[in-house]
Amino acid sequence: MMAKLWEKYVLRVRQNCLANHTRMDGLQFWRNRLFASIVVYLFPLGILILIPSAFVVYSLSLPALTTAYFLFGVAISLISLYGGFELNHRKYLFLTLVYTVATVLIFFMGEHGAGLTYLFGATIFALLILPTKAGVLTIYINVAVCLIHAGLIHYQMVDYPLRESYQVASWLAISANSILLSIVSVIFLPMLFRGLQETIESQQNLKHNLVQHQHELEESLEEKETLLAEIHHRVKNNLAVISGMLHIQSFKESDKEIQEKLLNSTLRVKSMANIHEQLYQSKSFSKMEFDQGLKKLVETILDTMNHSKEINLNYHLDPVQLTISQAVPCSLIVNEVITNCLKHGFPNRESGMIDIDLQKKDSEIFMAISDNGIGISEADFKKENESIGIELIQTLTKQINGTYTYKPRQDNKGTEFTIQFSLSVN
């Protein structure tokens, strides 16, 4: 219950004392924040001190001081809780309260009380929560209060029991210390505040420049991403035109060997086009999801070769991201291996099965492609090693610093191709 009341009270005070200022307002925000913190504790502590003090002075038959304590309590309540004041009016009312307390203490207790401390405190508070001019004004007010009290001492309107002679000089000497401290504060504290304000402004300018540069970099990055997407799109379209021309030319050739070579070239071009298509469709132009592109690539090869066999594909793919410098060679390698499976693995058969495994262990990539076809004899394997397809696989494997094997399966029911390489960091 008390905690909720305290939270409501603190919220009310901060609403009254912070106004609409934010951190972007710099030193002014922190002046208001400090004033709010002072006022938050002013009300409970002030009331806690004033109530017993009022009873004490009332019992001592000091009605003027009792009335003053009562007015102090009202002023503290208005400063803390009343929402009808403007912020500067609230601050000046707070300073007026401090001066009233100082004047009362000086009048009733003279040099024995804390009146001079309150005069010095008024200067400090003015410098903390108001512009420097307010602090300078308190110097004149402090001097005036001390001179007025000196006049009261001179005309014996107040008691000054410290000395029987030179009472005015004694009071002026004592009060001069408080005034001197106030003057020193007015000189040096504004220097500190100016330095803080300059620091805040420089940080705000730095933040503004950083935000502006970030915005410019984001715009530049967006432009480059758009440009890269357009480049990949045009490369893909150009490759599609080339593959289409090669495909059409293969249909017009009567020589089966030339027709096969044109078809192989068509598949290689389509493999590269597939990479560029996936890159411009993705949000990243440095890496691509190779496991996803692999499925599309194999489907493209099957559609392009226009075979009549029923091929069952079994995929076991780990999520793998490859850079374009690795994705293009790998795609061309897959193209050569899948093409060989379809051309040589299933003669005189209506169906077949191809298994494609892609595994990632730490930074190592392992890929295996196997079929359940007739396999390959040593004579055919030697002949195959002299083909352009195998030469291309060897060259591309070296390009990605990998190693590969291409051999009959252990169960002699088909052929198996494996390749292993490390992920590129660039």
UniProtKB/TrEMBL annotation:
Enzyme class: transferase
UniProt keywords, alphabetically: ATP-binding, Coiled coil, Kinase, Membrane, Nucleotide-binding, Phosphoprotein, Transferase, Transmembrane, Transmembrane helix
InterPro entries: HATPase_C_sf (IPR036890), HATPase_dom (IPR003594), His_kinase_dom (IPR005467), MASE11 (IPR048437), Sig_transdc_His_kin_sub2_dim/P (IPR011495)
UniProt xrefs under SMART domains: HATPase_c (SM00387)
PROSITE patterns, alphabetized: HIS_KIN
A Pfam family the protein falls into: HATPase_c
Reactions catalysed: ATP + protein L-histidine = ADP + protein N-phospho-L-histidine
Transmembrane segments: 34-58, 64-85, 92-109, 115-132, 139-157, 169-193
Coiled-coil features, chain-numbered ranges: 203-230
Every Histidine kinase domain range: 230-425
GO molecular function, one term: ATP binding
Name the record gives this protein: histidine kinase
Species this chain originates from: Rhodohalobacter barkolensis
